[in-house]
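Sample pair:
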Amino acid sequence: MAAPNIVSVATIKGTSFAAVLTTTLTTTMVTCAAETVCKINVIRCSNVTDNDATVTFDFEVAGTIVKIANEVTVPANSVVDIVDKNSSLYLQETDLLRGGASAGSTVDVVVSYETLID
């Protein structure tokens, strides 16, 4: 399927994903379904510990993996936005957004996104 014309989509569904990041980069946060486009509005990382941590995020497009953030420091007890409304990105059908942290149970992540259905 070709990418939907985002000016005239039939449906826009707002969704949020929340999880505790693990030490593997393979934690899938968003899988864009067939015949949709997913607009990633926010990736917010909250370090819930007294120690600094790093986070890495990538997305997979047709088998090609591209990092959008590599070992970004999230200071102890603070919040870092990896993506925000000023730097949003689009995933097309079957694309994946994944992430991981340097230490398990240190970083909570929230991904806010819109699913655009043609």
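The longest strand covers residues 36-47.
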